[in-house]
Amino acid sequence: MRLRPSLLACALLLAPALAGAEPPPYRGMQEILDAAPAGDWRELDPERTLYLELEAGRVVIELAPGFAPEHVANIRTLAAGGFWDGAHVYRVQDNFVVQFGDAHADDPARARPLGSARTKLPAEFERDAAGLDFDALPDADGWAPEVGFADGFPAARDPAAGKAWLAHCYGMVGAARDMAPDTSTGGELYVVIGQAPRQLDRNITLVGRVVQGMELLSSLPRGPEPMGFLEDPARWVPIRAVRLAASVPEAGRERLQLLRTGTATFRELVESRRNRRDGFYVRPAGHIDLCNVPLPVRRAPD
């Protein structure tokens, strides 16, 4: 009999007890993170980090050039040219996305100039899986043959087709487009603030994820039905600036570290969420969804 992946984790967990040995002591998420070796954390790279400055504070976005290199390059150019300075958050759709950029992008007479950025980019919905370090979850997924983490991002892959792609989990950042797949410039970006819309995977280019400041976006007042677009400009949320972290003086940068997903620490963390054995849980789930796996971020120790 072949065990399903989700049951395999349970079997491995119960094996010591079935053999008469004491199971390893259960550690909660914070205990695991507190005991993580320094080498299990990686520094946030300022060359692939974007700061979205709102009146309420700073949103920190880690970019994903390994999956969307041409979009990320254009985003860097747009940020260097001040494209988003004075732009707005103009869409807040409940249980879906926050969208920001140029509210007049569809009006040639009023659209913001893109400067030296490219006006046309290819769709970057997926990439070749060859050579990609992929930390697979054992759990089944309804949207892809395999799911896990690549380059620190929630991702999926199809080994038979040799393709991999990023997943629309909470906090992921995508590049809005029109009907044609290649109509995104990276100037209009959205952040997932609701239930993971995985049906969008491989249909829109994902360019990164928010690693700090999600509460500044997810708490914004919702726009009207059906799409959440804020038709009244008085309700638009001003953007002070968007900058690449590398262009910000070091004293003004966020000193953040992210847990590496290829470590024993991360594997234990995932298992602690898959089969929680603290006093509250009467029945461990024995399964975890890709978008429910925490991706820890912390301030770098002094």
Automatic annotation (TrEMBL):
<keyword id="KW-0413">Isomerase</keyword>
<keyword id="KW-0697">Rotamase</keyword>
<dbReference type="Pfam" id="PF00160">
    <property type="entry name" value="Pro_isomerase"/>
</dbReference>
<dbReference type="InterPro" id="IPR029000">
    <property type="entry name" value="Cyclophilin-like_dom_sf"/>
</dbReference>
<dbReference type="GO" id="GO:0003755">
    <property type="term" value="F:peptidyl-prolyl cis-trans isomerase activity"/>
</dbReference>
<dbReference type="InterPro" id="IPR044665">
    <property type="entry name" value="E_coli_cyclophilin_A-like"/>
</dbReference>
<keyword id="KW-0732">Signal</keyword>
<dbReference type="InterPro" id="IPR002130">
    <property type="entry name" value="Cyclophilin-type_PPIase_dom"/>
</dbReference>
<feature type="signal peptide">
    <location>
        <begin position="1"/>
        <end position="21"/>
    </location>
</feature>
<feature type="domain" description="PPIase cyclophilin-type">
    <location>
        <begin position="55"/>
        <end position="244"/>
    </location>
</feature>
<protein>
    <recommendedName>
        <fullName>peptidylprolyl isomerase</fullName>
        <ecNumber>5.2.1.8</ecNumber>
    </recommendedName>
</protein>
